Amino acid sequence: MKRIITTITCIILSLHGLEVYAQKTSIQESDRNSMGAITSREFSIRVDEKVSYADFCVKVPEGGDYYVSFWLLPSQLPDKSYSKFNVYVNGKSVGTILPSEENWQSAGLDGKQMINLKKGENTISLSSPLPDIASVEVVRVAKTLQCARISDIAYKNYLNKIDLVARGVKSSEEIISQEEKEYLSLVKKKKIRAFSDGSAWDVSFFYRLPIKYSFWKIRYYEKGSEIRIITNSTDQHVIDVFYTDKWSLSYYDPAYQHLSWLVPSFLSSNSGQSFYISIKTIKVPKKGYYAIKARSLSNNKLGSINVYIDNDYYNNQPLFTTHQSLSMPTDGQHHILMTQKQDNNLGNDPILYVEGGGSCPGKIVAYNDDKHPFVDADTVINHMFPNHTRDAAIKAKYLMPTCGFHIQNYGSSSSFQSGFCNVIYLKTKPQRYIPYPRTIVDKSEENATPAFSVNVSSEQGILSIESNKELHSVSVYNRMGVLVGARKLDAKRITIPSYELGMTSQDVYLLVFQGQDGEICNGKIFHQTNYFVLNNEPIKLHLI
Q1: Within this chain, do residues 487 and 404 fall inside the same structural domain, yes or no?
Q2: In this structure, what CATH number is given to the domain that contains residue 45?
């Protein structure tokens, strides 16, 4: 789901994405075997009622017949066969891909068929039946079969390192330490740029964090359908499931942070062998795209995982994460978190995830790939790394507590699964005044109309909220004091389905409303009652 690099001998051609959701173009690492080939790493996703399509844009200097290969991940089906992909050129069917083995691979058309391309831009599409979205990263076309093939050397080398750790030949620490030495010999040390308005920010740094690919998928579900997940691994892990407004991981929308689930693994024993498994069924509350990803709980630990999603099975997938603890408060201020690659020409491509929601490890409450939507739109972010198009950046006001962040590499096809990057955290410096002082109530005014009040009615799972002042946000806590949901409001009146605030069971919940001027109004409700009123009660934020 990435960028485009096009090489024809010594000619670099400019390419353009098909849709607004397509990732931006950037130059990738060179491949000696790709001379004479055209390689596209950028595509967009579209769906119809039954099928998803990955549409690549490929630009060729002359029309004619070309061999084609894809770097893709098939699933194993219940009958032990592998998922079939249909291929289209400019909307016309040209053949199928029938993988005969598991894991990431270079795959061409069945029967070594060639495709006919017109001069200029062409759309090469790969289709897969819903709810699956084809896991595909690269398409390559060339006049010879040899040049069209995509090298699997780097990926197999990555799997071999995982195997060395599994067999106890080497430790993850030994491998990463050696990789760091090799990495530093390749990159030039670059200073982190200063910025003109730095006086407004407190800055923290996390240096040389490892970046590696770990299994992840995007799938598309209808409302009311089910996501069924089963995993097993020798390593303790968690599975993240979260809704993404678009099919890519570049466009984070805080309005959907409540549509996120954390699936922890637990220890199981079978036939004398111990391993970690996770099991989860999620009823889909909203139609659209859902990301499903795996991460290890042991920081910087090389491992593997087997994943079942519905009827699809993915065997021996890489398992890795780099986690750092970081608490970003719900203070109404902007917080900026961004990666900084040491060298933009190397193939590592970090995705940045923020964890939170009242637990640690936490569920995904924010994410970003490739700086979207901040490209050319945020002076601070673009000043820090103007040329690093594949860095990740998150600028957000958090409505629920955070516990840290983790990074993973976007692609399995990268020739450099041993990269590193810095992470920079910028926090708005505190104001000179206390934002939420304790309210002193005059006894003579105890029976007067509250300065800030909220009325809430509930009917058939829909909350109707009405306030006498403009609302900023609402946060919902269960009886254990754990935050289960939050949402920005920006209105006096609004209706919200209760499940969007994490109120998924019959229980007592605490609702905390914040006004635009910082006033707090809170009250307890028993979910599924017909009517309740929240009156102004002066409290301190840390008591909530």
Answers
A1: no
A2: 2.60.120.260
Distance CA 288, CA 309 (A): 16
Domain boundary among 428, 458, 477: 428
- Tally Cβ neighbours within 10 Å of residue 457: 15
CA atoms of 327 and 301, how far apart (whole Å):
23
- Note whether 45 and 113 are same-domain residues: yes
Q: Are residues 34 and 170 in the same domain?
A: no
| Nearest-angstrom CA–CA distance, 297 and 361 | 8
CA 89 – CA 373 distance, rounded (Å): 30
Q: Do 282 and 227 form a contact (C-beta atoms < 8 A)?
A: yes
User: What's 495's domain CATH number?
Assistant: 2.60.40.3080
For the segment 386-412, the average pLDDT, to the nearest whole number, is 83
Does one domain contain both 227 and 286? yes
First to last CA, the chain: 42
- Residues 324-336 have pLDDT tens digits of 999 888 777 788 8
* Identity of the amino acid at 235: D
pLDDT at position 130 is: 95
Residues in CB range of 272: below 8 A, 6 or more apart = none
CA dist., res. 225 & res. 131, Å (int)? 10
Number of Cα atoms under 13 Å in the Cβ half of residue 536: 20
Report the DSSP pairing between strands 322-325 and 393-396: unpaired
Average pLDDT, the chain: 79
Structure tokens at 62: 């002359």
**Which amino acid makes up residue 388?**
H
Judging by beta carbons within 10 Å of its beta carbon (0-12, 13-18, 19+), is residue 529 exposed, middle or buried?
Answer: exposed
DSSP 163-221: HHHHTTSS-HHHHHHHHHHHHHHHS---PPPP-TTGGGEEEEEEEEEEE-B--EEEEEE
Q: What distance lies between CA 67 and its chain's CA centroid?
A: 33
**508/190: higher pLDDT:** 508
DSSP labels for 371-409? TTT-TTT-HHHHHH-TT-TT--EEEE--SS-EEEEEEEE
pLDDT at 248 > cutoff 50: yes
Cβ neighbour number for residue 426 with a 10 Å cutoff: 21
Residues 478, 387 share a domain: no
Report the number of distinct structural domains present in the chain: 3
SS3 letters for 239-282? EEEEEECCCCCCCCCHHHCCCEEEEECEEEEECCEEEEEEEEEE
524 pLDDT more than 90: no
Is the pLDDT confidence value at 286 over 50?
A: yes
